[in-house]
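Sample 1 of the test manifest.
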Amino acid sequence: MKDLATDYQGLADKVVEVAEDVSTKGRLVEAARELFLLQGFEKTSVKEILNKAGVNSGSLYYFFPKKEDLLVEVLEKYKTLLWPMVIDPVFQRVNDPIDRVFEILNGYRQMLEMTQFTHGCPIGNLALEMSERSDLVRQGIADNFEGWQLAVRQCFEDAGERLPQCVDRDKLATFVLTTMEGGVMLARAYRRIEPFDDGVDMLRLYISQLLAGPENNSGN
Amino acid sequence: MKDLATDYQGLADKVVEVAEDVSTKGRLVEAARELFLLQGFEKTSVKEILNKAGVNSGSLYYFFPKKEDLLVEVLEKYKTLLWPMVIDPVFQRVNDPIDRVFEILNGYRQMLEMTQFTHGCPIGNLALEMSERSDLVRQGIADNFEGWQLAVRQCFEDAGERLPQCVDRDKLATFVLTTMEGGVMLARAYRRIEPFDDGVDMLRLYISQLLAGPENNSGN
DNA sequence: GTCTATAACTTGATAGAC
DNA sequence: GTCTATCAAGTTATAGAC
């Protein structure tokens, strides 16, 4: 189930450390994370982060010489928490590998509805705002996308022979990410869930056709 | 061919007016457009816009009381130029309605490659950066997406009976937009064209299956 | 409509005591 | 590691002459 997270147990300590970090540094990262998510990097001032974290200027710059260094740490946090906070709960609720993909998508759907489209994909937002900034930031974003893509690809690989052999699992997983990010963007712009749902519906239809495909005799 | 742009001839004057506008106002909008595209709204200062346009502060604020008003005008410009600058050239090069859809997608692909991923989708960038800003801005973004969606939907409608009747043209067009925006985002993050191509490939396969299978079932 | 000068404020970042 | 005080530069926006 977790071939791709072989070092998961080793990660566990770090996860607790990251998720429940109430140190000055940890509070700064969490405050920055929330503000960047809601407002973006540029719109968020250092002062806002300081206020939200209850930290003084001197302390911030002791840990993070530049505002951008904070962003790098935020991206690191997203990466660390992906499996324990996003993927594992889905994998526990749902067993069928294909259903798991749609449950991951459903997680983003719920976020859109619950926040009334004020929260988008944290990574996607930063991807478009920051991709021409430092290479370290862009790499952190790419790493996050790769984490998601890996999780989804794992599902398709776990589906085994239910998917025709000719289907490229890697590309299909990328396509799921594409649909997710594009769907979130349109849904937020329209403030309607339909564009997101339309994308997922198309994906569902497409995959169900693959599962029931001609060269596939024992499909679901 | 242009059922959806019935007032096109009437638009023509406005298009020329907008595209070749070298007035102070026009230069301001064009300078702002280029800078917003490359840097985003927040990162771009009014001073930069002024320098690029060769205009003084007083003139800008004579036309646009707020920086955000400039953005609204930029979005208006994108909307006005969509057909003459993007859609019409594609429709002239390519006749087959399905091929037209992929030629539209190919336009974005070329932009990604030519600019080495520094330019993304102008609307997509602003959508994620500004969707929680004023409602006027968000509406301008939604209007632009709608323009693109309409053009793509037109193609699918022009495909007539080649597409099974059960296929929802509207949703399929939205799905194309979703794929385009998601693909652009991932390609920029990775600085590789493959994620974009993967999405388009999947879309192509999906649509070719729709075109081929007359007994294709389960519209949604 | 356009110009110059500048107000009023916020920005990211630093210095140095503790 | 954390505090206060503060800097220099940059920010959006305005005033008033022409």
